[in-house]
Design brief:
coiled coil; about 75% helix; mainly alpha; about 600 residues
């Protein structure tokens, strides 16, 4: 009497026929495992691409799990992706640096995510080492436990006491063996062979107890029939990978728990199970076809993205600043879409990725060349605006209204027509020009007889300003335009009662334009406000200051829950940055409030 599983060398020599059957079963089981490995490889190739930010976020999530060390494979996949993205982006920066005419050996750049990436890798390395130590200790305990089970099995057929229930005892031993934890791979083969050797010896002893042997045969046959029935159901399982995974588990049950059976059922049941297994494995081609079809769709989408970026790099008409700003946002969306789109066929993956990176670099090169060409014209624009400032400053105390008012209106119109200036000078020259204009119009308003205001003319002027405000977008210089329009609005007197709704329409439009330009109304630089308007604005600023101070206190209290909180801790970096941003915003509001109170 032998089992159908791993036999010792002596038993193999004694039972050549049964060893042959065992070898065939194990061979098919090995093929099943190979099929599962192939399917798993298909799935690994099919993993969805993720962005650098998402990869770092998932890495951080892993290291914060209780058993972080056991997720070694997933963490390594994310680590490789993150490293790949960081390397590519650094190479892009180097490419731009060299393209600008700089020597490559002088290039120096640290990616903004490098510090966080390194911190996550170091933290995980420590957690993985701790996990491995724990695994080694657990495997040693499991080894001792399994050896004790083998001793119980050995004693069952060598030192059994009279009246012992062998059927119950062998069931308990086999159940304990199936539930025992993992041991080191170097120990498993010898340990497993030893177990089945003594199990075989036990069954040989049972030749003397035919009644028990028949019970054992019957019990194991029921297990085989149950396994076969479940395997038949898997033939119609719609999720192919699920069917393959469960089939692998059924083969494990067959090897470990469904032996032995009576001779007349042994070959019959095995052949039936093997035939069903082969049919299920044949369905793996469906899985491959499905993955290939999806990868083909992904490749088509990624090529469409590359083509669209290339098209943006080659505009049919001469592009302006607004075109490039919109294109930059669109390319960023396309880049995100590319990374989120799933995998493509492996043989085309590298080429597809290289095409994408080359196209991105081409776009950036064309865009950078455009802004380089603007530098000369921006200098000329600066000189033109400086002349307007000088004229405004020379005439801001001029009280010959018939001449001065049209002059300042003309200066403002000319200012809007002149293009962009170097960014470092934008705010400075705008402040100088606005101050000169405000000084003139404040003087004009104070010394003009308000009783002679032409309300209809006021409405006409306000309507023109409202129309101008509606045309403002979120391009460079938009905030200056809004401030100029708002100041001009403040300097216009009353309108007829039946036209007063224009004020509400203007305020609504103003809020919309401030929102798209991401600026708070309280931070808007404007002149010409009445005392009531100044008081209301000061009240609003005070309320926002109070709210910000409360938010900062709350965030700083949250930090106190950590032991020795530091900016160097990658988990607290975002919190410190948020606090810094809110404090900067708070300081701006305080300066605005001071300006209102002091009348500056």
């Amino acid at each position: 009497m032998t089992t159908e599983n791993n036999l010792s060398e002596n038993e193999e020599k004694k039972n050549p026929n049964e060893v042959s059957q065992d070898t065939s079963e194990n061979a098919v089981s090995h093929d099943a495992n190979q099929h599962e490995d192939d399917a798993a490889e298909h799935l690994e190739e099919h993993e969805e691409e993720i962005s650098l930010a998402d990869a770092l976020k998932e890495m951080e999530k892993i290291i914060n799990t209780p058993n972080a060390g056991e997720n070694f494979k997933r963490f390594n996949q994310l680590k490789e992706k993150a490293s790949h993205y960081i390397h590519d982006e650094v190479e892009d920066k180097k490419h731009e640096y060299v393209e600008a005419g700089n020597p490559a050996e002088n290039f120096s750049y640290e990616h903004p995510s490098q510090t966080k990436y390194s911190a996550l890798v170091n933290i995980f390395r420590e957690k993985h080492e701790d996990f491995q130590k724990g695994q080694e200790e657990e495997q040693k305990k499991n080894l001792d436990h399994r050896q004790s089970i083998i001793e119980r099995l050995k004693n069952l057929y060598t030192n059994s006491e009279p009246g012992i229930n062998l059927f119950k005892s062998i069931r308990e031993i086999k159940e304990d063996w199936s539930k025992a934890g993992q041991v080191a791979k170097s120990e498993f083969k010898i340990l497993n062979n030893n177990y089945f050797h003594h199990l075989n010896q036990f069954y040989q002893m049972l030749d003397l107890n035919k009644e028990f042997l028949e019970q054992e045969y019957s019990h194991n046959l029921e297990k085989r029939e149950h396994i076969i029935a479940r395997a038949k159901e898997l033939e119609n399982e719609p999720v192919i990978q699920k069917a393959l995974n469960e089939l692998q588990y059924l083969h494990k049950l067959w090897k470990e728990e469904a032996e032995p059976v009576a001779e007349e059922f042994r070959e019959k049941t095995w052949e039936e199970f093997k035939e069903i297994s082969n049919k299920i494995h044949e369905r793996k081609s469906e899985l491959s076809a499905s993955i290939e079809k999806e990868q083909a769709v992904n490749l088509e989408r990624k090529n469409e993205i590359i083509a669209e970026i290339k098209k943006l790099s080659e505009p049919s008409e001469t592009p302006n600043h607004n075109y490039w700003q919109n294109s930059i946002k669109r390319v960023e969306d396309l880049r995100s879409d590319f990374l989120k789109t799933g995998s493509v066929p492996r043989k085309l993956s590298n080429q597809n990725w290289n095409d994408f990176k080359t196209t991105l670099r081409g776009f950036n090169t064309t865009k950078n060349n455009y802004y380089k060409s603007l530098k000369g014209s921006q200098q000329a624009n600066l000189e033109e605006k400086l002349k307007l400032i000088q004229t405004a400053q020379d005439n801001m105390n001029n009280e010959e209204w018939d001449i001065a008012v049209p002059l300042f209106k003309k200066l403002q119109e000319d200012w809007k027509k002149i293009g962009h200036v170097p960014k470092s000078m934008t705010n400075k020259i705008w402040d100088e020009f606005r101050d000169a204009c405000n000084a003139f119009f404040n003087n004009y308003r104070e010394k003009s007889n308000t009783s002679t205001d032409n309300w209809k003319e006021n409405y006409k002027n306000k309507k023109a300003l409202l129309d101008e405000l509606k045309e403002v977008s979120n391009e460079e210089g938009s905030i200056e335009k809004i401030e100029q329009i708002k100041t001009s609005w403040n300097n216009i007197g009353k309108v007829p009662r039946d036209k007063i709704s224009i004020n509400s329409e203007f305020n609504k439009t103003l809020r919309e334009k401030l929102k798209i330009n991401k600026i708070n109304e309280l931070e808007l630089k404007e002149e010409g406000l009445s005392e009531n308007q100044l008081t209301d604005k000061a009240r609003k600023i005070k309320n926002q200051i109070s709210d910000l101070e409360a938010e900062i206190v709350k965030l700083e209290n949250n930090l106190s829950f950590f032991n020795k909180p530091s900016r160097e801790n990658p988990l607290l970096k975002d919190t410190y940055n948020t606090i810094d941003e809110k404090k900067a915003h708070l300081e701006t509001l305080k300066q605005n409030l001071h300006s209102i109170i002091s009348g500056e």
